[in-house]
Amino acid sequence: MKIFVINSGSSSLKYQLLDMDSSLVMTTGLVERIGEAMGKVEQKNWPGSAREQEIREERPFSDHREAMMTVVELVTGQDTGVIASRDDIDAVGHRVVQGGECLLHTTRIDDEVVEKIRSNCPLSPLHNPANLVGIEVARELFAVPQVAIFDTQFHQTMPPEAFMYPLPYDLYKELKIRRYGFHGTSHRYVSQQAAQMLNKSPDQINLVTLHLGNGSSMAAIRHGQCIDTTMGMTPLAGLMMGTRCGDIDPAIIPFLMREKGLSKEGVDALLNKESGLKGICGMNDMRDIHAAIAQGDKRAALALNMFVYGIKKYIGAYLAITGPLDALVFTAGIGENDDVVRRQVCSGLEHLGIVIDLDKNTGRKKIATAVQADGSQVAIFVIPTNEELAIAQETLTLLS
Ligand code: AMP
Predict the structure, then answer these.
(1) CB atoms within 10 A of CB 252
(2) Radius of gyration (Cα) for the chain, nearest Å?
(3) Mutate to test the pocket of ligand 1, among 231, 334, 361, 382 (most ligand atoms within 8 A of CB)
(4) Is the dihedral of CA 48, 51, 57, 63 positive or negative?
(5) Residue 238 contacts by C-beta under 8 Å, 6 or more apart in sequence?
(6) Hey, which of 151, 233, 262, 295 would disulfide with 182, CB 3.0 to 4.6 Å?
(7) Which of the listed residues 214, 288, 330 should we mutate to test ligand 1's pocket, taking the one with most ligand atoms within 8 A of CB?
(8) Nearest residue CA, atom 9 of ligand 1?
(9) 234 C-alpha to center of ligand 1: Å?
(10) Is the pLDDT of residue 338 over 90?
(11) pLDDT of residue 50
(12) CA separation (Å) from 373 to 279, 302, 326, 343, 367?
C-alpha cells in the first residue's frame, strides 16, 4: 500500500510517498514560495528506492494546483519518479491543523468533512485555508480515499479544567474559545515510541513531551493520554519560540495598541513574527544563537536563558499533574539536535529524579536514544519525530 502524505501550508507544500508494506519512504519533497515571483521545488528520492537522486528546481508556482501538478509529474516522471503513474497511489493522508470540537479523530474526507474543516477556519485563519487547498486539489487529482489527521486531536483528552479559559462562559459556547493545542501528531508519535522504549503499554505511562523546534510546545501525558499542553486556542501560546512570544500578560496587547498605535494586524504580526528568540536577540535559529553566544553576544545568551527557563517552569508544573513521571522526551529540530539546550533544561532537576548523562547526551540524535544517567528515576529520551510517518500510519489504520 502506497500512501501519499500532504502537508499544505499557506505558501508551501510538503509531501512524502511511503510504501507501507516495506516501510520505505520512497520520496520526500517540498515546494516553497507558492504564489511568489520565484519558487522552488526540492525532491529527494530515498536511498534504496528505484531512482535514488535529488531534484532541485527554481521556478514560479502560481498556485497550489500548479505546485501539486508539478509534484505529481516529479513523483511519476520517467526520469525523476519513483512510481509509474498516479494510479499507483492507494491513499492520501492530509495534515490539518485545526479540527476544532467537531473533528476529534482521524477522518475519511468527504464533502461534509471539508465543510467542517472550513467551519474551523476562523480559529486557524493561517493554516486551515491552506490545508483545504491541498485537500481540494488532491481530491481532484487522486481518485483514492483521502484522510485528514488533525494537529489538535491528540489533545482532545484534556479535561475541561485544562482546556477552558477563565473568560465569560458564553464566549466558549458562541465562539469556541478554548485551548486546543497543536503538534499533536508529533506528541503522540514520540509518546508511542517512548512506550516501546520503556517496554510498557502506552496507557501505562506518564510523560512530559517537549517538541522544541521553530514552533515549540510541551504536553503532559498521564496514562498515555494528553491532559494538558502549552499551546492554546492558537499556536502562539505557551513556550517562547523562534519568532512567537508564547505566554505574555494579555494586558500588554491593548497597552501596545494604545502606546504604539498598532492595529490588530500589527499586534498579531509583532507577537507572531517579531517576538520570541528573534525579538530578544534578532535571531530565531538556535544554531546562530549559540554561535553569537560564543562571540560574547549578551542578548543571545539572554534569549537562550529565557527559552530554557520557560521550559523548566512547565516541567515543574506538569510534574504536579502527571503523577510519577516515566520519561521526559525531547523532539523536533532543537530537541533532537541541541545537546546544550537538553543539558541546560535538565540541569537543576536532579531533586525531581531527572538526571541527565552528559556523555550520552552529547551530539545530535538521528535515532531514538536514552540519555539519562544510571540511577535516574526518570528516563530522558531524545526521539526524532516523524509526523509524515505518523500520518501515513493513521491513514492506513483508518482504511484497514
Ligand atoms: P523544526 O521547526 O522542528 O524544523 O526545527 C527548526 C529549528 O531547529 C531551527 O530553527 C533551529 O533553531 C533548530 N536546529 C536545527 N538543527 C539544529 C542544530 N544542529 N543545533 C541546534 N539547533 C538546531
Answers:
(1) 13
(2) 21
(3) 334
(4) negative
(5) 216, 217, 218, 229, 230, 231, 232, 246, 247, 314
(6) 151
(7) 214
(8) 285
(9) 22
(10) yes
(11) 63
(12) 35, 28, 14, 12, 18
**Spacing, Cα 143 to ligand 1 middle (Å):** 37
Residue 50, class by beta-carbon neighbours within 10 Å (0-12 exposed, 13-18 middle, 19+ buried)?
A: exposed
pLDDT for 23 equals 83
Location of C-alpha cell 493545542: 181
> Which residue is associated with the grid cell 552528559?
358
The three-state secondary structure class of 353 is coil
Give the sign of the dihedral formed by CA 301, CA 302, CA 304, CA 309: positive
Percent of the chain whose pLDDT exceeds 90: 88
| pLDDT given at position 185 | 96
User: Helix, strand or coil for residue 52?
Assistant: coil
User: Nine-digit cell at 175?
Assistant: 465562539
| CATH architecture under which domain 199-382 falls | 2-Layer Sandwich (3.30)
In whole angstroms, give the CA distance from residue 12 to residue 35.
9
pLDDT digits (tens, 9 = 90+) for 87-138: 999 999 999 999 999 999 999 999 999 999 999 999 988 889 999 999 999 9
Q: Which helix (H) or strand (E) holds 272?
A: helix 264-273
Let me know how long the chain is.
400
The CATH superfamily label for domain 2-150 reads ATPase, nucleotide binding domain (3.30.420.40)
Confidence of residue 78 (pLDDT cuts 50, 70, 90): confident
Residue 88 bears catalytic tag: no
Say which residue the cell 539519562 belongs to: 372
How many A from CA of 285 to the centre of ligand 1?
A: 6
Where do you find CATH 3.30.420.40 in the chain?
A: 2-150, 199-382
